[in-house]
Amino acid sequence: MKLTENQVTDQNLYLNRRQFVKSLTAAGLLGTPFIANALDFSKNPDYQPRLKLTDPEHALHYNNFYELGTSKEDPFRNADKLNTDNWKVVIEGECSKPTTFDMDDLLKLEQEERIYRFRCVEGWSMVVPWIGFPLAKLLKQVQPTSKAKFVEFVSIEDSNLPGQRFRILDWPYREGLRMDEAMHPLTLMATGIYGEALPNQNGAPIRLVVPWKYGFKSSKSIVKIRLVEKQPFSSWMVATPSEYGFYSNVNPNVSHPRWSQAKERPLGSFFKQKTLMFNGYENEVAGLYKGMDLKKYF
Ligand SMILES: Nc1nc2c(c(=O)[nH]1)N[C@H]1C(S)=C(S)[C@@H](COP(=O)(O)O)O[C@H]1N2
Ligand SMILES: [Mo]
Q: What residues does Mo-molybdopterin bind to (predicted)?
């Protein structure tokens, strides 16, 4: 569905488009593919909570994307080192129809905007309008077999990525979800943010967004999705198994070994606020973990 700008822009909830373009001009972003790539999308009314959006100035310039460097400004500064031309996403493993999708195929799926909370394990958070489609829609197309118990996500590996010259992590960046988590309606494949195609620093051209889990579960720049029988290892589990578990659900009652997770600092705010159980999505997802000891399965 093609909507006009008036239809998709709610002045109260949504950021002022002209202001946004102005902030991009100030940041020297105009003329880059980011502003040229407006997406066709509709607002999903079920996911338009009355939350104050994070200023894109923060969400687009304060990033974690170790392939592009480890400091928060590196991903934006090195954004042009990520080549997204002819991007393909391979879906393989335990499914009857393994398929290679190109971005045209994926952008043909109906794109919707959803405003989600996002909480990094480091203790900062944001509220951003993602554009994308439920991962479940894509997975159904390849017809997972009964052996598909988990889903593994593999991000790009490329010698031009400055962070991959160092073994900061076990490259390529890998993450995983249980099949029911992957099929959950909240789990999104994002292609855009703030009304535009994803800029490179936020994981162009396509990334995962799992809003009830710590941010590192939301893999950027995905090239492969594997349906598997056994629980996969994520790059963070390989790096520090005592600190980063497979589940990594946002939980204010379970501390990181080195800091409390009870509070978070919204980007752009001086003050901290309380972190919510499952990042505020408890009603939607608590059932997935019924009977599980959340301290053990962290
Ligand atoms: N491929 C890849 N994906 C990644 C990361 C990364 O380093 N590489 N960092 C993760 C972390 S720790 C966070 S908090 C989020 C940050 O997303 P944002 O920069 O869009 O806010 O991306 C996640 N996805
Ligand atoms: Mo993070």
A: 63, 66-67, 120, 155, 202, 207, 218-220
Question: How much is the pTM?
Answer: 0.90
Rounded distance between C-alpha atoms, residue 9 and residue 123, angstroms: 30
54 lines ligand 1 (CB under 6 A): no
CA 296 to ligand 1 center in whole angstroms: 24
Distance CA 286, CA 234 (A): 22
CATH of the domain at 229: 3.90.420.10
SS3 content of the chain, % helix, strand, coil (to 5): 25, 25, 50
Q: Is the CB of 214 under 6 A from ligand 1?
A: no
The pLDDT tens digits for 31-53 are 444 444 789 999 999 999 999 99
Sheet arrangement for strand 222-228: 99-102, 88-93, 222-228, 150-155, 174-178
Query: Is residue 296, in this structure, part of any structural domain at all?
Result: no
Task: Say if ligand 1 is within 6 A of residue 211 CB.
Answer: no
